[in-house]
Write a structure and sequence with these properties.
The protein is mainly alpha-helical. The protein has eight helices and no strands. Helix 1 runs parallel beside helix 3, helix 2 packs across helix 5 and helix 6 packs antiparallel against helix 7.
Amino acid sequence: MRWFRKIVIAASAVVAVVGSFIGSGAAGGTPIQDAAGGALSASSTAIAPAGPAFGIWSVIYVGLIAFAVWQFLPRRGDEARHDRLAVPATLSLLLNAAWILSVQFGLLWLSEPIIVALLAVLAWTFVILRRTRPSGTVEAIVTDGTFGLYLGWVCVATAANTAAVLTAAGFRGFGLSQDVWGVVVALVAGAVGVLLAVSGRGRLAPTVSLGWGLAWVAVARLDGPLVSVPTAVAALVAVVVVVAVVVTLAVRTRAGWSAARAARAA
């Protein structure tokens, strides 16, 4: 049964990577930022990040491939953990590819439930990772690090995708300005980052990618056709707050571990 799990995850990783090539335009497809009439470009909505932000996908995909390969290596005492991760990990890979295809085919409305489902699956994965321990440092980097980055970035991507879908559908924000909506969404994203930091007891990976995305939202709002200084300031404030919280929690957690080890040694 475990070999079947490994093969399914590996196959799903291949599907996700192929989808990423299509989404980047490298395989003849239209780059995501240009697909669906440019609905996901940096100038489409007040919460859309600048183009370079999407470079984090390369890191995430490398991590997902490493995760798929890691399962086939000689056992390290993490089989039970990977058994629990099998379903959400596989779903996240397939939903990733499905989202890219929905945008490539111009089905922007379909991309929304797909990316919301992806976010929910990654939250499920995060809960499993939080409740189980990695077998070692490499396992922590390959599994916890990869899915942490994945979750943090998809939080930002979901906000940007939702804004794009609503804008394309003709939503005008109940008469509120783009500055107001940009500030609100940036602060909500920051609150999500704080929640991840607290629930993850100072895990760095989700914060790194979420902060990366918000920083590039700020860059996009300070330059280009859709300038919004209030949104940029709110996004940068959110980054600072989230980073401060996660660093504080990480230091306290590690201090607690050190005190516990010292007590056991005594």
